Amino acid sequence: MEHTPSIPSPSLFDLSGRNVLITGASRGIGAACAIALAQAGAALCLVLREPQGDAPPNLATVDSIRQLGATAQVVHCDLNNLDSVRGVFQKALDAMGGRIDVLVNCAGIQRRSPSLDFLETDWDDVLDVNLKSVWLLSQAAGRHMVPRRQGKIINFCSLLTFQGGITVPAYAAAKGALGQLTKALSNEWSQHNVQVNGICPGYIATDMNEKLLADPARLRQITERIPAARWGDPIDFAGPIIFLASRASQYVCGELLVVDGGWMGR
């Protein structure tokens, strides 16, 4: 593995000249991360779903990045369609001139139901998007990065990487496995100068948690347990994503960085 360069510390976080492929960047945490990476100098390729029916494409993040003067390419893929996932990394390589330096797996879906009633189709959907698509993209990225001896992969895990949750058995299973996958890939690829790490969000005010946010009793219970006394915002991930994507984290390998306002510490 390369050593952390002896350069002024602010320069360690500079992502100029780096190409980043990111999923889940149309909204929420992913959008905030994509914009932060662009602000740090990176060129972005966003994986977006094809517009459904007559709905216009959601290009708000793309527009925000381009307004910064940064590159924002788009490749289309439904992460629930594994055949589509298998081809998307090559599409991104083509769009980015044949090089991807950083892969950010941020996309995820949620299904809530008591375990006794949990549908097999919901289980399959959650595991395919939250785990198998990440594996397929990470494997493709590794095949590109390991021979080049350079690269970073950042997986978005969860508090449920460590805890079981309630009425979310598929999500807990996927995120628990994703934490172990992150460590397994790090164990193999760190020696090839490819750092694989995870970010574990706590309770964040995004669309995925809209049911919790709309439940006054549950909202109060959760907020009272967070030492920071507030839910997180997507912008809280700007610093962590830049750190793990940059040379500042050169010797950080197989880490699951919890960003939760102190929940796990309590």
Automatic annotation (TrEMBL):
GO MF annotations, alphabetized: oxidoreductase activity, acting on the CH-OH group of donors, NAD or NADP as acceptor
Any Pfam family hit: adh_short_C2
Domain of life per record: Eukaryota
InterPro entries: KR_dom (IPR057326), NAD(P)-bd_dom_sf (IPR036291), Sc_DH/Rdtase_CS (IPR020904), SDR_fam (IPR002347)
Signal peptide location: none
Ketoreductase domain segment(s): 18-192
Annotated TM spans: none
Keywords: NADP, Oxidoreductase
SUPFAM superfamilies, alphabetized: NAD(P)-binding Rossmann-fold domains
Similarity annotation: Belongs to the short-chain dehydrogenases/reductases (SDR) family.
PANTHER family named among the record's database cross-references: 2-DEHYDRO-3-DEOXY-D-GLUCONATE 5-DEHYDROGENASE (PTHR42760:SF5), SHORT-CHAIN DEHYDROGENASES/REDUCTASES FAMILY MEMBER (PTHR42760)
Protein name from the UniProt record: Ketoreductase domain-containing protein
Native species: Russula ochroleuca
